[in-house]
Structure formats: C-alpha cells, structure tokens
Predict the structure.
Amino acid sequence: MRFIILSGFINLLSAASKDTCDLSAAVGQSLTLPLGYEGLVNTHVLKWTHNNTLIFYRQQGKVSVGKTEDISPSGSLLLKNLQFSSAGVYQADVLHPNGTLAKTWSGRLCVMDKAPKPQLTYVCDFKTRAVNLNCIVAKPQGLVFSWTLDEKTLTSETRQTLSISLEQLKGERSFTCSVANKVSKERSDTVRPACKSPTPSPPSPPPSLSGGVSLILLLLIIIIVLCCCHRRDKTQMRLREKGELRMLSLTKREPDSTSPVYETMHPSEDSPPPSPKHSQRACYQNVSEPEAQMVNRPLQLPTAAEEQKPSPVPKPRTKNPQTSNI
C-alpha cells in the first residue's frame, strides 16, 4: 500500500516537472543551453542528448556527432532557428578519461510564438463618466497585460481592459498597453483619448405629466372635430330650410300667375242680371284653397303687364218689361 502511494507521488512530480519550463524561447530565435564547465579539456568526453536522443558527441577532441561550432569552450550548446520540434528535455554529461562523471546538466526547453502586437481602442461612456480602454489581441491566453499613462507604468493594472474617469482626462493624456509572454513583449501605439461631452438634451417631462398633456390634446382634438361636425350639420340644415322656403314660395306664387279672367264680351239681352248677393256667395264657393290663401295675403301692386290689360267691361243691366209698360 505504501509503495503504491509513493509510486503515485513520484508520477505526480514527474508530470509536474514535464509541464515546467526551465528555458523558454520563441520560434525562430537562437538559444544557448548553459553547461558552464570551465575545466573542460579535449581529454574529456562531452555528449548532449535531446529527449534521450544523442545530438552531440566528442571524445579525445574528435567530434563524431554534431558540429564543433555548436559547442562553446565551456561545453554549452548553441541552438539556432528554434522550432516547436526543438522543445523538450536536454541533458549534457562530461566524463573523465577513466569514465567517471565530471559534470552534468539537464533542463526542459519550451518553444512558443512571440507575443503579438496589441491594438489599443477606447470608448467614451458619458453615463458612467469614464473612458474604457481595451487592449485587443487575437489570443489573450497566457499573456500578461500592462498599462502606461503618460509613460508611467500603472503597476496595479494587469487586466486586458482599463477604465479611467473623465475627470482624469483633463488635458492631453497618453495611454499604451503591452502584452508579454515568457519569450517576448510587444507594445501598442500611443492613444490619446478625446471625449467631448454631447450637447445635453432638454429634460423629458415626467411620465404622468406627459400622459396628462397627451390626454388634454386628445380631448381638444375631439372637441374641435365635434364642433366642426355640428357646424357643418347646422349649415346643411339652414341650407335645407332655405331650399324648402324657396320651394314653398314658388308653390304659393303659382296661383298669382293666373289673373282673374273677366268677360269682355257684351252679354245677351235675355240673360237676367246677376244678383249681388248670389254672385258674391258663388264667388267664394268657387274659390280653391290656394286662391283662398291668396285672398288673405296683402294686396300687391299690379305689374306693368297687368296695367296694360284692358279693364273689364261691366255687363248692361236689362230693363224689366213690366216697368216699361207702366
């Protein structure tokens, strides 16, 4: 049981050591793996391995694997034009002529991309009275952010965004942001935010007041429409009444157009004279209702055409023969 626990602990440490980088470099860079053995001579045996693969071997001053120019006088190894395949564990061993170990070194090399150049943008937020700056990069994972204000580093700011109040922007202030990883660091261009506050809009009325004003306007519109409709109906009624009065007037004038026909011929001598009372009663009996209405109407002056008509000739009265005999 104890052996199993100890074995698991060793495996955990080994896995942690594999994730730890003793040296880091960017793709395309050159790097020297430091052995630093000052007592190295040609009688020593020097060998370098990469992930347990022999990449350099020298014995008695003769190089059988690798290149002589890649080794420094102290035995350090120079790596050129690193690629991702160059990452891994490197180990160096120096042996005496009798085979005993004189010096050893090992370390893990990590190869990664260079940090990208960031793009600095800003947005003025007048509601919160602040300017929000953003340090934009394609892949922010594993990068460390830093900020400068007027060339002074803001040590407390290590996030990708930065917020500064508008009061701090009085005058011309310059900002930069930087991103860094284990192998490189890049800095953005300088940005000088210019936040001009917009023209303040007039305060909007409270919701209750605006609702009351809208209701009043609606009532006024309804009243105006009703008044216009009432006035139009009243005008039409007046025009209708005038038309009816005109028609009634024309109807009343039709009997007037026919004047009484008077007999202009001399009657025969044999016809008896009309009795005054009888003729008056018969006249009133033969009068139609429109003519009766015309009788009650006030007299009108005769027109010029009526004045030119001949006046009626009275019938002669016949003498009683009995009276003439007397």
Notes: Residues 143 and 301 are 121 Å apart (CA to CA). The two ends are 190 Å apart (CA to CA).
